[in-house]
Amino acid sequence: MVQPRFVRPTALSPSSGAGEPNSSNLYVANCGPAVGLSHDAIAAVFSSFGEVNGVYPADESGVRVIVSFADPFSAKSAKEALSGRPCPDLDGRTLHIRYSVLQSPSQTQVGDCVPVSLSGSDLNIPGLFLLPDFVTAEEEQQLLAAVDTQPWIGLAKRRVQHYGYEFCYGTRNVDTKNRLGELPPFVSPILQRISLFPNLDYDPASLNLDQLTVNEYPSGVGLAPHIDTHSAFEDCIFSLSLAGPCIMEFRRYSASTWKVASTTDDEEKPDTSTCIKKALYLPPRSMLLLSGEARYAWNHYIPHHKIDKVKDKVIRRSPRRVSFTLRKHQTMTFKFNCADATKDRIKIKTSHIESVLRNPTDHRKSMKTYTIITAQHETPTNCDLRKKKIGFIAEILPLEKLSNTPFAPPVVMLLFMNNLTLMNRSLRPNKRGFRQQMFNNTLIHLPRPIIPTFTSYRACRKILSKRMSTAMEPKVRKFESVEGADLSSISKPDGIRFRLVSYNILAQVYVKSSVFPHSPPACLKWKARSHAILSVLKKLQADIFCLQEVDEYDCFYRKNMESLGYSGIYIQRTGQRKRDGCAIFYKPSCAELVTKERIEYNDLLNSVKADSVSCSGQKIETSNEAKGDEKAKDSGKDSRDLNDPQVRLKRDCVGIMAAFRINKPFHHIVIVANTHLYWDPELADVKLAQAKYLLSRLAQFKTLISDEFECTPSLLLAGDFNSIPGDMVYSYLVSGYTKPAETIEEAPVPMCSVYGVTRGEPKFTNCTPGFTNTLDYIFFSPSDSIKPVSILQLPEPESPDVVGFLPNNHHPSDHLPIGAEFEISPE
Ligand SMILES: O=C(O)CCC(=O)C(=O)O
Ligand SMILES: [Fe+2]
């Protein structure tokens, strides 16, 4: 979502003082599209106090907006008249209004307030050209009518059609084996006109545009920053705008400000201080050409705005914009002649590449000669992998030379690494170059550079395909602040902050290709998976990990986590057959283990008499079809009489809880419980019994700790509860916090779910063909002193890293990690 252009005033904002008006912009809470009030309706109400330049979302909530007036006096009158009282013209809602401030340029996020150019040449991006009125209004109508007779494919927010070749959003590539046919006749006039495009320094005949993507954007919908996949498409990309205008923004990284890599994946929110941003107004019927530097080195995107500001004029997006993007799919040709590559030859190539980089337009065609092979994975996210490749580049081209090139590092890598499109912004060379950075990250055991050792095309393909097929490229998302967290932490600077992550890492004992037939076989192998899990854990940088389905605790995880600075406690599932269990890893530097207790749900058997079935009493048979993947995991399912509670409740599930003393900046005890409840949806009563047992144990443990240490400990409960929001287990766990439904007994300790009370529960934390939904949670016992300040982001269903289900090369488990950072303030 778009970042607000203005910020909510904080206690420290210079403009927050009451009294004299000091801003033309108002932050208005309790109205917005999420409560059925359009920005237009809000603008109409506020415009009775003066000229309104625009109404913008203040954040992603949909219930807070920024109303921007032309002058501060109008803003002041509106604030005085409307704040704190019901507004009849806005459904009687009571508006809460404060002054807002414009973000300073240094705080400005990508997409903010970039001055919008009206002509392509004003942007001064080599290779970018915009031709207005490329088609007539009549042709525009014909083209729209033509696509409207064809079926649309619905994406999350927009609709698309593909012609020529299908573009797969999962791989960001075209499916070249599956040609859809010739481009449709209705684009022929456009193709003809493109061949007359004035700035084309290609032979039009060689363009051979053969792929068309039609995008339909509803009002306010944009497009995420991207560079069209290098290896999927050739140089020239044409985009025709129809039906409505939009602002297209462009950003690239400035070589002079490249920074040291961070260990977390920076892909989604790049360090904006290193970015150059430009914006261009694309009127309807205009044709945009992106080629050369504009195509390879600049990300393009359409901010999600309903209203755009162009040269002080507010322009509303029309209800619909349709674009025709025409491209030529890349034919995978092996042209890099390294059949008998020697060091000398490589040197020659290197100097040639330098000259190509300096002068891309002269060499645009020859760039292709460096295309060795197209890798399957277009957006590797594994830092280690990338560092190795960067290390390799550093071997042959030092930074000083790179920084003089007109391309950002990804393109340099593209050329060297043969279309491994390393869209990597977190790994930029520091002042000492890549090599130093690489050594700082102790990646000194680099494989030898691969190009000099290639002896033939076949060998090259073999080496690369081997590397690619075994390469896990874990995707780790970032922690995102929770609304209001920063505000209150300003007032409580002495709070304890720690990060807790819960992750069902998928025990290797359950990994079989028959259970996960959709997973690339290489990523199911223990070695690849275990290292990918460690890499994910390392990148998450949690203070406390609650892991479920941990097998190989003693011989792998404990040792390896120790070397990452963690101590661990562990409980293995009861029974003979199960070898996995729950582990809590914690940083002794942050938290000192005080005491711990095991939770064995088989203990429930002691509390049940054979004749009093606490369970439903119905005749119960478990179906073999239920939730296939989990089912297949649990080979221990028995065929004995499930009406016998002794059988029914004996599921060998476990949990572990521990009290940790945090000593800095003040003394506080945190209780952390980690569990994995039984999986079978048909044994919902068993899961509920386990949840009740869990909370009763947790309540007792809390009392014990409070009495013994004369304190009020904070309570955190994490794990895989094998229950979706709304299931009995979930409702029970939060029943002490929310008003329990009549059928739900109230929990002995109030608990609320971190995601549930902040962003809402994730769409899914488990993602397999048989079942995709939310099963993992972090609960905390709400009090005045503890609050979540940030939560780990989770993917959308269409996010490329989860398309095709888990585990995959980006996620080593069938679950996703969830996490939260908490702040505890002094009592
Ligand atoms: O809608 C547009 O104009 C741009 C579409 C685009 O960038 C793409 O499909 O890659
Ligand atoms: Fe694009």
Automatic annotation (TrEMBL):
Q: Name one Pfam family in it.
A: 2OG-FeII_Oxy_2
What is this protein called in UniProt?
RNA-binding (RRM/RBD/RNP motifs) family protein
Enumerate the PROSITE patterns for this protein: FE2OG_OXY, RRM
- Output the InterPro entries linked to this UniProt entry: AlkB-like (IPR027450), AlkB-like_sf (IPR037151), CCR4/nocturin_mRNA_transcr (IPR050410), Endo/exonu/phosph_ase_sf (IPR036691), Endo/exonuclease/phosphatase (IPR005135), Nucleotide-bd_a/b_plait_sf (IPR012677), Oxoglu/Fe-dep_dioxygenase_dom (IPR005123), RBD_domain_sf (IPR035979)
Q: Which family does it belong to?
A: Belongs to the alkB family.
Q: Which organism is it from?
A: Eruca vesicaria subsp. sativa
Any one GO MF annotation of this record: RNA binding
The UniProt keyword set, sorted, is:
RNA-binding
Q: Does the keyword RNA-binding apply?
A: yes
> Could you tell me which residue ranges the RRM domain spans?
24-102
Q: State if Cell division is listed as a keyword.
A: no
Source organism's superkingdom? Eukaryota
Identify the PANTHER family for this entry.
CARBON CATABOLITE REPRESSOR PROTEIN 4, CARBON CATABOLITE REPRESSOR PROTEIN 4 HOMOLOG 4-RELATED
Ranges where the Fe2OG dioxygenase domain occurs: 208-330
Q: Where is this region: Disordered?
A: 1-20, 622-643
